[in-house]
Amino acid sequence: MPTFPELRLRRLRKSEAIRSLVSENQVDVGDLVYPLFVVEGKGIKKEIDSMPGIYHFSVDKLAKEIDEITLLKIPAVLLFGVVKNKDEVGSKAYHPRGVIQQSIRAIKKAAPELIVVTDVCLCEYTSHGHCGVIANGDVDNDRTLPLLAKMALSHAQAGADMVAPSDMMDGRVKAIRQALDANGFNDIPILAYAVKYASAFYGPFREAAGSTPQFGNRRSYQMDPPNVREALREIEQDIKEGADIVMVKPALAYLDVIRKVRDTFNYPLAAYNVSGEYSMVKAASRQGWLNERQVVLEILTSIKRAGADIIITYHAKVAARWLSEIK
Q1: 286 class by beta-carbon count within 10 Å (0-12 exposed, 13-18 middle, 19+ buried)
Q2: SS3 for 143-180, per residue?
Q3: Marked catalytic residue, from 92, 249, 282, 317
Q4: Residue 230 to residue 216: CA distance in whole angstroms
Q5: Of 35, 127, 189, 212, which has the highest C-beta tally within 10 A?
Q6: Which of 37, 39, 29, 31 is nearest to 72 (CA)?
Q7: Residue 20 and residue 202: Cα distance in Å, rounded?
Q8: 249 is a catalytic site residue
């Protein structure tokens, strides 16, 4: 093998055209999913304080946002519901006229080809802020499963293209798959939050979704950050139960986990570039400490390079504009 001066690796870096030609990983707008927060009420478009550029929308205000998303060629949205009145079992999560169910119908009417993915979890709808039914001071795994299945089914009935359970209950994928199949929705895929860590990076999301736990924390059901082998067991179990796509969340602090999952399983893999990761970039860029465009594209490339096929990110709209300029 030749060495310097015959071998000059910089030859393939001397122009943008050459760098692009030999690029090993490229982010495409078709890789991106844009999260949306939908609230009860009318005439609402309100910026979320801790997530600059991200808004709460009422159902009647979604149309313009959906038009922009489709114009940018972003293929999919991920819906989260925010409700005023909550109860201990999150009953608004599976109400046929709930805010997410109404949103699905409105979006599919406005943009039939846009993929609508729905978050399936009770935390936004429960008075205690946890992801399931509480018994003896903790979430009762098995009593929660029928409610998650009911929620997923209500989304499918409203017209969702895909459901995404994020609760981290054992057995939820199987329960949802059985409920969907038993009601004629065997063609609805499940995107499982298979590896969801108990992360500090979710802080801004909890403000956006109104889902902060009223007591304790979620460490008894979300994954412990030091663990990687356990992540592989979670993935394996969700695949066995019927998951069509698996996810690692968060992304940046867990790129090694994304790579390990990619190398172990031949399944479509999503990664969630979560709210805290988004807000850190926005805050630093507003202070002039970072170049937002360069940092965002570098972050998304790192997630793709780690092995993700799908990137759920609040940067999706600006990234779509920048990627179209690059091309």
Answers
A1: exposed
A2: HHHHHHHHHHHHHHHHCCCEEEECCCCCCHHHHHHHHH
A3: 249
A4: 23
A5: 35
A6: 29
A7: 34
A8: yes
Instruction: Give me the CATH topology for the region 24-247.
Output: TIM Barrel (3.20.20)
Q: What amino acid occupies position 62?
A: L
pLDDT digits over 252-306, tens only?
999 999 999 999 999 999 999 999 999 999 999 999 999 999 999 999 999 999 9
pTM of structure = 0.96
Digit-coded pLDDT (tens) for 160-188: 999 999 999 999 999 999 999 999 999 99
Interstrand relation of 45-47 and 134-135 (parallel, antiparallel or unpaired): unpaired
User: CA angle, 74 as apex, 72 and 78 as ends, to 5°?
Assistant: 135
Residues 6+ apart with CB under 8 A from 94: 147, 150, 151, 153, 154
Of 196, 260, 304, 317, which one is the catalytic site residue?
196
- Cβ atoms of 36 and 317 closer than 8 Å: no
What SS3 class is residue 24? coil
The residue type at 169:
M
CA angle 270, 161, 47 (to 5 degrees): 70
In angstroms, how far apart are the furthest CA atoms of the chain? 71
Question: Three-class SS of residue 296?
Answer: helix
Count CA within 13 A, CB hemisphere, residue 221.
24
Sequence-distant (6+) residues with CB within 8 A of 160 are 104, 116, 117, 118, 188
Reference 273, options 298, 299, 242; nearest CA is 299
220 within 8 A of 168, measured Cβ to Cβ = no
